[in-house]
Design goal:
binds magnesium ion, alpha/beta, binds guanosine-5'-diphosphate, 7-stranded mixed beta sheet
Length: about 180
């Protein structure tokens, strides 16, 4: 059995905790508490330390999902969570004010890790208008400009088949354990 540690990151409200909750088959560890600051207006609870869940995909593959806290004041946790990771999933909230800026922020925040491991970008909460526009292409271009060949996929993170697609992109990536 091989253990694969995958980081799930992205802004507050993107759907990271939802992703880990819907996909994991183990008991999920969540450390959400009542938000005490500006995130309170967005939702009642926010992840302060991390989310954690696991899934056994086949006899050889166990995936450990680690959700990072979304707020910048917890960014000291990101480096800890990133140690020994096999890949990074950036979840974006397409209905946020500036998803493109969010993407750039997370690409830079995880630049060191992304040098070594594959990345996939899941665009959650996407509208019909965005689907029919060049929204995804613009995000794809931002990834390319950053130097990443990551796929950008529109997802409904509440559906396990969509989350499965993101996880499989990481596991089947060529960028295998590159140092
Ligand atoms: N409309 C819609 N809401 C979603 C979707 N995914 C998550 N949510 C909701 O968005 C809120 C934030 O999700 P959460 O997983 O806590 O985000 P996190 O801050 O990234 O962990 C929750 O109330 C979810 O129920 C989605 O695909 N569509
Ligand atoms: Mg969360």
């Amino acid at each position: 059995m091989f253990d694969h540690k995958i980081i799930v990151t992205g802004p507050v409200g993107a759907g990271k905790s939802t992703a880990i909750r819907t996909y994991s088959t183990s008991q999920v560890v969540e450390t959400d508490i009542l938000a005490s600051d500006q995130t309170q207006t967005m939702k009642e609870a926010t992840t302060v330390a991390m989310d954690y869940g696991t899934i056994v995909l086949d006899a050889e593959t166990k995936v450990h999902l680690y959700g990072t806290p979304g707020q910048e004041r917890f960014d000291f946790m990101w480096e800890i969570l990133s140690k020994g990771s096999r890949g990074v999933i950036i979840v974006l909230n397409a209905s946020a004010r500036n998803p493109l800026q969010d993407l750039r922020f997370y690409l830079h925040a995880f630049a060191d890790v992304l040098d070594r491991v594959p990345l996939v970008i899941g665009v959650n909460k996407i509208s019909m208008e965005q689907r029919e526009s060049d929204f995804i292409e613009k995000l794809q271009q931002a990834a390319i400009d950053f130097g990443s060949d990551a796929d950008v996929l529109a997802v409904d993170i509440r559906k396990r088949k969509d989350m499965n697609k993101l996880v499989k992109r990481i596991l089947f990536s060529d960028k295998l354990f590159a140092k």
